[in-house]
Design brief:
The chain is an alpha/beta fold. The chain has 14 helices and six strands. It has helices at residues 3-13, 15-34, 45-63, 68-90, 97-108, 119-130, 149-156, 163-174, 181-203, 268-290, 294-307, 312-324, 328-341, 348-361, and strands spanning 113-116, 139-142, 209-212, 223-224, 227-231, 236-240. The protein has a six-stranded mixed beta sheet with strand order 2-1-3-6-5-4, with helices on both faces. Helix 6 (119-130) links the parallel strand 1 (113-116) and strand 2. Helix 5 (97-108) packs across helix 6 and helix 11 packs antiparallel against helix 12 (312-324). The protein is globular.
């Protein structure tokens, strides 16, 4: 509201400022939107600053009229309402997710080598390791840096790094070929994977190796190259394919749903953490069912839903376990709820067919 008279005043009396502010606003907004990174909020600050200047000009312009008291009252009310409405979204006092996640992963993969492509967790785990009193603290490896020779030199101070890794990294940067950004990105990615595989092969007999992927949407991941993955909770334990072990249930090492529940948070990072906890517990429930323990499986699916009440996977799994145990009414209710939450899932035809079978098998009143 106040920006309109502010722009009119600038346009009429300070044309150069009007052009500069308008141009700066448009350019900064366009650049921020076009910048292909997920956490781009900070890049909007120049635009918000320019908008605040225009709003201030509008308030000053209206205060020079006879309605000075009304303008002052509306300004103060507007600021107060904005603060009240925005505070729940901006309150950072409860954002302890990175610390809790880092401590949980450190407990889960203690005295080991942990690889991760989650840079925030990498820094959190470095903080935990620096403040740890363990005799053999965790070595945290950032996958994003594996293709840099200087980073391999740093790793070599803690563990022996094969010469082939350094050679591959140096070849990436000194190859001399002119590549597009996309081609170079693909080459860097393949080089990183090659180095990671070589390091795993070299270190796996020396210390336990764990892996924490930032993207957990594809859980569970079972194999990569000549390695198998054993879900250890929030992380994967890396094993050679020939050393694979039978299904083993893991213990939980992170805070409960009283502290982390999707409905308790507004910021995407904390909600994502709640969903990661829910996905981990849901996976443990699936493992319990695989070894024939339906009761523990249902308990874990309930716990997953306590973290994330509308978690489609846990709802579907709970319905399927009920169906296998002959509780058709409960199974039908949960599977119908799954269809409401995931109407476009590739599993919908299968679930609908199974529902039809259950409804036909259930006795009618």
């Amino acid at each position: 509201i106040f920006a309109v008279p502010g722009l009119a005043w600038l346009c009429r009396l300070h044309r150069s400022w009007y052009v500069a502010i308008t141009l700066g606003f448009v350019v900064s907004i366009t650049a921020a939107i076009a910048y292909n990174i997920p956490d781009k909020e900070g890049y909007f600050l120049p635009a918000w600053l320019l908008a605040a200047i225009v709003i201030g000009c509008g308030v000053a312009t209206l205060r020079r009229t006879r309605a000075v008291k009304l303008v002052t009252l509306v300004t103060l009310l507007g600021i107060a309402i904005k603060l009240i409405v925005s505070y729940p979204l901006q309150d950072r006092s409860r954002l302890h997710g990175l610390a809790d996640l880092s401590k949980a992963v450190a407990r889960e993969a203690k005295n080991s080598i942990l690889f991760t492509d989650d840079y925030s967790l990498y820094m959190g785990l470095r903080w935990v390791a620096r403040n740890s009193t363990c005799e053999h603290p965790m070595l945290v490896v950032s996958e994003h840096h594996l293709a840099f020779p200087w980073y391999l030199d740093q790793l070599a101070q803690a563990m022996s790094v094969p010469a082939s890794c350094k050679t591959a990294a140096e070849r990436l940067w000194t190859g001399g070929s002119r590549l597009s950004d996309v081609s170079f990105g693909e080459l860097a990615k393949s080089t990183t994977q090659l180095i990671r595989h070589t390091l795993w092969d070299s270190w796996i007999d020396l210390l336990p190796i764990y892996w924490f992927p930032r993207d957990f949407g594809e859980w569970p991941i079972r194999t990569w190259g000549n390695f198998d993955f054993e879900l250890a909770g929030l992380t994967y334990r890396v094993r050679r394919a020939e050393d694979s072990v039978p299904i083993r249930l893991f213990t939980l090492s992170f805070p409960g749903p009283d502290r982390y529940r999707t409905s308790h948070f507004h910021d995407p990072a904390s909600i994502d953490l709640c969903r990661r906890f829910a996905a981990t517990v849901n996976r443990r429930g699936m493992l319990s069912f695989e070894v024939g323990n339906s009761q523990d499986a249902i308990a874990d699916f309930n716990l997953a839903l306590a973290y994330y009440p509308d978690f489609p996977a846990a709802i579907e799994n709970k319905g399927l376990v009920f169906a296998m145990d002959g509780q058709n009414d409960s199974a039908i209710r949960y599977l119908q709820r799954y269809l409401e939450l995931e109407p476009h899932s590739s599993e919908v035809p299968r679930v609908r067919e199974f529902l039809k079978y259950l409804q036909q098998a259930s006795p009618r009143p």
